[in-house]
Design goal:
Length: 450
């Protein structure tokens, strides 16, 4: 297939407001993915919540024998996602662990017998109808793998009163350092292609836009070849090349830039006829349909200036972060993040485990791990200009710090904040704007009791 011509690829129909230009640091973009050896994972600790929604309850007990893919936690709640064992072995404990977010979560601890034996009950999960597809996503334990962790079966349970006319495959991967989706496209191109067909054909969607940033040339070429396939007789799959401006990959942003539609406060993508799926989520769903093996591992990028051997690495869910960093020869990091530098969560304990929605573990030391000193606001308005949601971060912070009630905080549209971190990044006074807005959102959720 010859190199694509620019005229064959769609341009965004809108530009995001604000946002920021970041150094990409995609150091691992050309590194083929390795797999963390089983012997490096003597034990996994698998939380019963790795998603937005209700927690699961363990359905195994101490001493039970489990296999790779055995379901170990489930819930009757619609907005929830089952969890599965990522190793074969024996349940050694059911305990409560304080997560990086500060939440206490029940976890199933499994001693790995290192045999990697799949559950004998696992078999392909054929899909014919839209209901089958949503059921498959649930049985897979699939959540938004771009970082959101929203249960995929909820998105795929299409309400007939809100028909979907556009499938958007999110391959933007706009956070610095992270290359896990990029490697998915390069290493599993055929699965990505089959996944797109599976979703669009099963749901009867005739318009599919694959959105990718212009800093991923190899992925653009491969996606172009996919979109130009003769199988796509009616030209229903098209590629949209986005400029690499953070946060292009945020769900509301990608809908706006590729279709021009605005998801208003309190509404969902389905309200504007869109279904957005992360590219690795889509491929994972296809793999589940073909094999029946649920989501038990994840490709992550391991990088940062404290990591001697940066890698793209497939790791079992529940693997301690310390085992991942040891394998990549990280030396005494001062700061470790789940996820990217803009939206990632800092870890205080390296025994924290890999979760389904993690797409990177970054370790930094020295100056790169330190935050600037906090100074008084100089009213420069840069935070307002950078906010892609057109919020006024300074006004929200001032309101929160002066003890405003939930109604006042809501009046600033605080709940629209997607915690992208642009305002904190751009603030010359080093004010922790995103962190404080997160606290303000918590206060609103609790009706002002904080
Ligand atoms: S973190 Fe929130 S307030 Fe700050 S720029 Fe992003 S969306 Fe706007
Ligand atoms: S960017 Fe920082 S210094 Fe500038 S107005 Fe916003 S809070 Fe104040």
């Amino acid at each position: 297939m010859p190199k694509y011509k620019s005229s064959e690829i769609l341009k965004p129909v809108k530009r995001i407001h604000g946002g920021i230009k970041l150094e990409h640091h995609k150091n691992t973009a050309d590194m083929f993915t390795e797999t963390l050896p089983e012997e490096n994972i003597p034990t996994v600790t698998i939380p019963m919540v790795q998603h937005i929604g209700a927690p699961c309850s363990p359905i195994v007990k101490k001493g039970d024998r489990v296999y790779v893919g055995t379901k170990i936690g489930d819930s009757d709640a619609f907005v929830s996602s089952p969890v599965h064992s990522s190793v074969s072995g024996t349940v050694s404990d059911i305990t409560t662990v304080t997560m990086a977010t500060g939440n206490k979560v029940q976890c199933v601890v499994i001693d790995n017998d290192l045999s990697n034996t799949p559950d004998p009950a696992i078999k392909p999960h054929p899909v014919k109808t839209a209901a089958d597809l949503a059921a498959a996503a649930r049985e897979c334990g699939l959540v938004g793998l771009g970082g959101a962790g929203f249960p995929a079966h909820v998105k795929l349970s299409i309400n007939p009163e809100k028909p979907i006319d556009t499938l958007i495959i999110n391959a933007a991967e706009c956070e610095p350092y992270i290359t896990s989706d990029y490697r998915e496209i390069i290493e599993n191109t055929q699965e990505v292609y089959e996944a797109i067909y599976l979703i669009k054909e099963t749901l009867g969607i005739h318009n599919c836009l694959i959105a990718v940033e212009d800093n991923k040339p190899t992925a653009i070429q491969l996606l172009y070849e996919m979109a130009a396939s003769p199988k796509d007789k009616n030209n229903e799959i098209r590629l949209v090349k986005l400029s690499s401006r953070y946060p292009q990959g945020a769900e509301k942003m990608i809908i706006y830039t590729t279709t021009g539609r605005i998801v208003k406060e309190g509404l969902l993508p389905a309200d504007v006829g869109c279904l957005v799926m992360n590219v690795t989520s889509a491929a994972s769903l296809y793999r589940f349909v073909k094999t029946g093996m649920p989501l038990i591992s994840k490709r992550i990028t391991v990088d940062g200036n404290a990591v001697k051997k940066p890698k793209n690495l497939i790791c079992k869910i529940g693997t301690p972060v310390s085992a991942i960093l040891d394998y990549c020869e990280a030396a005494a990091p001062d700061m470790v993040l789940y996820g990217g530098p803009m939206m990632g969560t800092a870890l205080s304990d390296l025994s924290s485990m890999l979760l389904k929605q993690n797409n990177a573990v970054l370790a930094f030391c020295g100056k790169q791990a330190s935050l600037p000193p906090i100074q008084n606001c100089i009213n420069c308005n840069r935070c307002f200009n950078a906010c892609p949601m057109r919020l006024n971060p300074k006004a929200i912070i001032d309101s929160y710090e002066s003890g405003a009630d939930a109604a006042t905080l809501s009046s600033h549209k605080t709940m629209l904040c997607m915690e992208c971190g642009c305002c904190s990044y751009i603030c010359p006074a080093g004010r922790p704007l995103t962190h404080t807005i997160r606290l303000a959102k918590g206060k609103i959720k609790q009706g002002g009791k904080q």
